[in-house]
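Name: DEAD/DEAH box helicase
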Amino acid sequence: MYSAFQSLTPNISGNDKLREPQICSYEALHQFFLEQFDPDTFREAGIVLPVGCGKSGCITLTPFAFKSRKALVIAPGVAIAQQLEKDFNPTTSFYKRSCILTNEYPEPVEIRGTETNIDDLIESDVVITNIQQLQGIENKWLDKLEDDFFDLIIFDEGHHSVARTWTLLKDKFPKAAIVNYSATPERSDGQIMSGEVVYSFPIVKAITSGYVKELKGVVINPQTLRYVRSQDGNEVEVSLEEVIRLGEIDAGFRRSIVTSSESLKTIVDASIYQLNEKRKETDDNRLKIIASALNYQHCIQIVEAYRACGFRADYVHSNNDSKLNDRVLSKLNAHELDVIVQVRKLNEGFDHPYLSVAAVFSVFSNLSPFVQFVGRIMRVITQNEPDNPLNKGVVVFHAGSNITNRWADFKTFSKADQEYYNQLLQLEGFDLTSEKDRSSYEVIPKLFDDNEISVRSQIDVSISELNLLDDDPKALEALEYLKSIGLTGKNIEVLLEAIPTTKAQKRKAKRKALPDKVKTSAMTIIKRLDVNPNGKGLDKAFRLTNLPYIISQINIDINQLVGKSSRSRSEFNIKELELIENKYDAILTAVESRMKS
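Structure predicted for DEAD/DEAH box helicase:
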């Protein structure tokens, strides 16, 4: 008995409802199947597509390219798996929307908890699930299936496929063809996606076709920067060249750049400036900033900085309750936020086209997570309109955070993978100062304990934009084409003033950040004490469990410090909030000491 992928004839070549990368990836995979595929020696192929180029559609076409008897589609998470199931489902399928099939469709089934049984899998043409459903040596699904049950396995976000769990899955079905789809063939740990890349769609073509946003990199360049090393306490002033050099070789310096209040504020100001410019240019206030943070505390610090500038900011983090994250994302989708901050939380599958400015507050040690973060702002707002100003994105970062080196990796990456990241970024520069007659900031930074360096001030901060095109003839040809259709901007020199902040906004931002800060600190104490947060014992009266009790103790000390109750926190003034900041570490030490006694 033939499967749907063997018996049905899909309308693919010449179908004007399909995008070029969808047709070409299908043809490349079909050629691979006919000419190269060998189940014993050569069974793995890769497809590299930029975000927003129709990868889900490509995945639905792949079983036809291999004339598959039964295919397995693996996603890295639940959200992507559910979306892929919709693309295969006859009532909402990509086949129907794109006039690929009529009347008859492949039979899909999704593995999801106890809702699916083995008979469903037997009756299906394609099985869709997330990798977590198939984890474990004694997995109930894999134990029930013969080694030849699937003749094709498709990995969405295939750069993960070199991980152990994914490799075990490949080994379970040793004769199945393997196809890896990804926007980047490199994982966050530097491992490269397995299999030969048989097709990739260059980013410059994706831009000119209007599939993805045109990106511009904005780098903050202080002419000088003063910093203090904690080991000797000496203050040193260095030039821009030395800032960049230290960023390339000193991990502590890079981390300080993105966490110290002084340099963090310049990234905040520059990203707000870029957002305001884009909102004015497009007359669309739904455009937003996405910021990458180092950790939970850093999320709170960045959110506070944006709120102090009057912007609606919030964060999502894996430490948060899923319902809390969902509420934040609901606000984002309802356009009730200007800024969303995250720590690698909004990666594969996250889709919000109105993210237009990426502010880099984290330090990326590998190219892949940086590409994934940039991908969050690459989805277009209006399809197939490359010259629409809504379809432009900006990446903002500091020269000392080693991100410039990441852009250099972009260049190497693009040439190694058929100009995948040969995208055009304009070149421009402008000053960043708080006043025309003021050339430096003098701010005592708020640092994390593990920072070795304290940034004291930056002088004559300027911003420049990077161009990803070298002297590559093909890249220059693409540049000329983009110029001919008006896609490049003028080189500009613009004075960028620091975003003004009122005292009320600063106070509100600090007050709103305090509960999150207290909760995070309480969890840190819980961890150091090695006690169960939901257990009892710290409260001698046995009324509260451990975590709420420590939170209450921190709050009691805070309230005693300023002589006010928790109910009157809305009345805390800026001096009281700054006093709390200055005495905060001492409060934590005192609370932890009481817990040990």
